[in-house]
Amino acid sequence: MKYVVIGSSAAGINGARELRKQDKDAEIVLISKDDIVYSRCIMHHYMCGNRTVEELNFVEKDFFDKYKIDWIGGREAVGLDSKERLVKLDNEEEVSYDKLLIASGAKPFFPPIENLKEAGNVVGFRDMADTFEIMEKIEKVDNIVVIGGGLVGVDSIAGLVHLDKNIRLVEMENRLLPLQLDKRSSATYEEAFEEKGVKFYFNNCVQKLNLDENGNVKSLLLEDEEIPCELLIVAAGVRPNTEFLKDTELELEQGGLVIDPRGRTNDPDIYGAGDVTGWGPIWPVAVKEGIIAANNMAGGDREMNDFFASKSTMNFFGIPTMSLGINEPKDDSYLVEIEEDRKGNYKKIIHKDGKIQGAILQGDLSYSGTLTQMIRQNIDVSKIKKSLFDIDYSDFFHVKDNFEFSYEEV
Q: 289 vs 11, 18, 165, 300, 305, CA distance in Å?
């Protein structure tokens, strides 16, 4: 059996590892545009000097030798012949497969803004090539603007605040990290970044890029003002990397590769995982998708059914935060419980009909273990007679003779 994996990030690497665990004798080939393995989640640590490129690596140094994986690095998949079972590379080589895992990830989305595509000094923030380009250009500019206040945008400004530069961020919503945080928890980070000199433009969007005589961006026209900009970092979302699949019969939906809960596409020999599916563009989801898809490729029978909406963890300026599911109630049928103290610790749980629908923890994350167990065990919180934040393991579990935990209603 010959397995081919496209992509060397969370889904691809973990998928390749799982294939080897399940099939000791198979031939495994991993193809990636990148010629190094690194975590995109921590690229900003390289930008601010906290880590070297080598320290961004999230696998063992001998990973490919250890798992006997043939790595074709620095090569991009540009086409696929599913009938002949061939992956076409950008150097005109072709790689055959018996089963294929597509984990080609995503690319930055560039909004339809006037002069954006043709302007110089405009960079996405998705991979190390983008990071190297930003690091090269920042030495020659004073005014840097980031479009997008999601995790990628916040990561980028976190990597730049140590510099003596004017940094601005433009976000359409009314706060940072609108998908992960509520107004209260977002404000904690906004204040921390503002203390470092970052200026925010919320409820706003870029209308046009003004260019200098060399075609480089010199300023941005917002809805009601113009701001200087000599380097623009675009972090306005991503789109799945599926261009090389456009001439195939694989099913795509809104640009993403369509998979079932086992990671299978409409071709029985092709599976998908990670950002290329558009399911959930966060690291833990991609890891699980890669492992489950690979397990099924090798004859297993697992489903991607243990996700709780989206889970994000972050830590900026020593302020750790975890968010789960929704961050605001959708209507009056949801109940919200909040606890905070003078030290800045903040806890919020949103539930409906006894089931937790979302939560935010900021500062002290020691409650996260109890919280995730409540969600994993699908505990009916409406039956709890005391504050949810006073619960610990002793309230819910006792050890039976076989050392298993069991739920006890309180």
A: 6, 11, 40, 14, 10
